[in-house]
Specification:
Layout lengths: L14 E4 L1 H4 L5 H13 L2 H4 L3 E3 L5 E4 L5 E3 L8 H10 L3 E7 L15 H11 L3 E5 L8 H15 L4 E4 L17 E3 L11 E3 L4 E3 L1 H7 L14 E3 L11 H13 L4 E3 L8 H7 L2 H7 L8 E6 L2 E7 L5 E7 L5 E5 L6 E4 L4 E4 L5 E5 L5 E3 L4 E5 L4 E8 L2
Helix pairs in contact: 2-4, 5-6, 8-9, 8-10
The structure holds alpha-D-galactopyranose.
Alpha-D-galactopyranose (GLA) binds next to loops.
Length: 388
């Protein structure tokens, strides 16, 4: 049997939580269990979230046979017991490794141990592997990620394979048959439009990541089973509610995996309401699997559109600016919407839709112009349904 990636694991983008953005290296089994509990109690599981992902720093040393072990102090019960616990909650467990000899935080990477590690993860009951790109000088990325894909396949347990290569080698050109998603950027930072320069690398605000791969129109490479990963979310990690709403809506509409990165045990009601907005999540999880596209960018206004199943569409109006934006959208004026890459279109001169606003919950139709007052850094998101 030739090696391949596991099909059917990401027909729509993954929904979950990851430890890195809030906890960095401070991971341990009680915190992870509490996060699984919180995912259920907060309503996130009911809203569709599934994965509890441990990022870097869970590792101990390799044993005499080269088998990777957990850090005994942080995970005294072992990874198998933790996976059992997470599974008992109806959730799935994710783990992290790296294509080089060491991870980004300096723990053992999988280089030269790919088949052995994949087997270990399968035995532990792991469901998701994020595979990073530190310490990989002179390694061919296609080869390295293909090796781990093949190793996972050989190990036999369906494990979602999340490529974390930051977009350095344009994974959108080669990763469709290798992984279920690929990062398109360096690491996110909880700010609206900043760049934090660390010398040889930068962390990026929400708008920076949103715009980063515009020139290659990265959406065209994504589809069921293989998604652009805009990085784990910073909702609830210090931005304003408007910024969090926009961040969440944008990640949803471009079909990024929606991986929360906040402390689910202590989040505010506002944060929880954003992360569990089922109508926004439904855009991301729409079975058609077509990522949203940039339709208009004029000054501070940006409009994204996304074709949905059954002739429905999503429209997202983003105010990138620092003042409230008054804008009237005349559907008949902007009558033509064409998604040439995926072959969908609207002609508002012929097609009428009713719409529903997914944050404020108002409704209307496309016969009349839509007048919006979008607060600074906020969004208006509409779902359009064809009129019978
Ligand atoms: C890299 C990744 C991050 C995180 C850290 C862990 O920076 O891009 O998402 O996994 O490593 O060390």
């Amino acid at each position: 049997m030739s090696a391949q990636k596991f099909e059917g694991l990401a027909d729509t983008p993954a929904l979950g939580w990851n430890s890195w953005n809030t906890f960095a290296c401070n991971v341990d089994e009680s915190m992870i269990k509490e996060m699984a509990d919180a995912m259920v109690e907060s309503g996130m599981k009911a809203a569709g979230y599934e994965y509890i992902n441990i990022d870097d720093c869970w590792h101990g040393e390799r044993d005499a046979e080269g088998n990777i072990q957990v850090n005994q102090e942080r995970f005294p019960s072992g990874m198998k017991a933790l996976a059992d616990y997470v599974h008992s909650k109806g959730l799935k467990l994710g783990i992290y490794s790296d294509a080089g000899h060491t991870t980004c935080a300096g723990y053992p990477g999988s280089r030269g141990h790919e088949y052995q590690d994949a087997k270990t993860y399968a035995e532990w009951g792991i469901d998701y592997l994020k595979y990073d790109w530190c310490d990989t000088e002179n390694i061919n990325p296609i080869g390295a990620y293909t090796t781990m894909r093949d190793a996972l396949h050989e190990a036999g347990r369906p494990i979602l394979f999340s490529i974390c290569e930051w977009g350095d080698n344009q994974p959108w050109n080669w990763a469709q048959d290798i992984g279920h998603s690929w990062r398109i950027s360096g690491d996110i930072y909880p700010c609206w439009d900043c760049e934090l320069n660390w010398g040889s690398w930068s962390s990026w605000g929400v708008l920076k990541i949103l715009d980063m791969r515009d020139e290659v129109r990265v959406r065209q490479y994504a589809g069921p089973g293989h998604w652009n990963d805009y990085d784990m979310m910073e909702v609830g990690n210090g931005m304003t509610p408007a910024e969090d709403r926009s961040h969440f809506s944008l990640w949803a509409i471009v079909n990024s995996p929606l991986i929360a990165g906040n402390d689910l045990r202590t989040m505010s009601d506002t944060t929880r309401d954003i992360l569990t907005n089922k109508e926004i999540i439904a855009l991301n999880q729409d079975p058609l699997g077509v990522p949203g596209m940039k339709y208009l960018h004029a000054g501070y206004l940006m409009i994204y559109v996304k074709p949905l199943e059954n002739g429905e569409w999503a429209f997202l109006f983003l105010n990138r600016g620092d003042e409230t934006l008054k804008y009237t959208h005349d559907w008949q004026h902007h009558f033509e919407v064409k998604d040439d890459q995926f072959g969908h279109s609207i002609d508002f001169n012929h097609d009428s839709f009713t719409w529903r606003r997914l944050w404020e919950k108002g409704s209307g139709d496309t016969e009349k112009p839509l007048t919006l007052n979008i607060p600074a850094h906020d969004v208006a998101v509409l779902r359009l349904t064809p009129e019978a």
